[in-house]
Every structure is written in C-alpha cells, then in structure tokens.
Amino acid sequence: MRLVAVFGSARCAPQTPQYLEAYAWGRAVARAGFGVVTGGYNGSMEAVSHGAKEAGGLVVGVTAPPLFPTRKGPNDHVDLEIPAPTLLTRIERLLDVAVGYLVLPGGVGTLTELMAAWNVAMIAQMHGLPYRPIGVHAGWMELLRPQLEIAPAHLELLSVLGSLEDVETFLSGLPR
Hints:
Elements: E1 3-7, H1 17-31, E2 35-38, H2 44-54, E3 59-63, E4 80-83, H3 87-97, E5 98-103, H4 108-126, E6 134-137, H5 152-155, E7 158-161, H6 164-172
Parallel strand pairs: 1-2, 1-5, 2-3, 3-4, 5-6, 6-7
C-alpha cells in the first residue's frame, strides 16, 4: 500500500479544531486509498491515525524512543511502528516511505519536517528529477513567503491547502 506522510503537532488536544481537522485529513487519506505514516505519537499524529484507521486505512508510526523516553509507545491507532534512533533518521524514514506529504499546523518539529521535504523537492527539481508532492496547510503561508532567498518559484513546489476539498484534490493527484 502506498503511504502519505502527514506532519503535525504533538501538542494539539482532542476535540479542538486543530485535532478535528487532522482527524478529517487522516480519513481523507484513507478514503483516497492510501495508508498514513506519521511520527506515531499524540496530538495531530494521533488524530490523523484515528481518522485513517476508522476509514479502513493502514497506519504506520515512525517513532523515536531515544528522543522521547517518557512517551509510552505509539498511539493506539498505529498498525506498524518503525522506531528510529535519531531525529534525522526519523525524518528520513518518514520522507522515504511516502509518495507525498501533507503538512498540518505545528511547531518547530513540524516545520523541520516540512523544510526537509521541501529541500528534497527543490534539489530534485534542480536536477530535473521528479519529486514528491507537498501539500501545506494554508496557515503556514504567512511564514512561507518570498523573502530572504525564498523565491516565488520555490513556493510553487508547495500546494496550499485551505480546505478539506483541497486536501482531497491534492490526494487525487498522487501516484497510485
């Protein structure tokens, strides 16, 4: 089964608008015929996993036990846990196993995942190679705008997702 990586906050609480949005994105991924891969823990990762699982999708969690020793393993919706020894290995595994990426609101960790995926896409484009699509929650666009050395062409590598319908359209364009 092809997987879509979904990056998001570990801090959003159940029943908040952010959690419910992540849950809906997880359902959309599974309904589109993909499994999800997340960081495997709580917050948005749990919401995405819950939504995907309820819609019949496979849920993979790439955890990092050495980084988060107080966490008691992956969330209850994870079918397959892939432990990673370091942060960079975790991000690399998330990027490697997915055919595309969705980026929910989040903090520094989510931003790191977005930047890694975006940089890999920019390098592939620079070499004339195909790259994996990146769908970014519209909330990120205030931060991700042309400035310093980010050119408008760099932003064209990102699909801005302002609604669940945008997410569904993004998913319909991913390789099967």
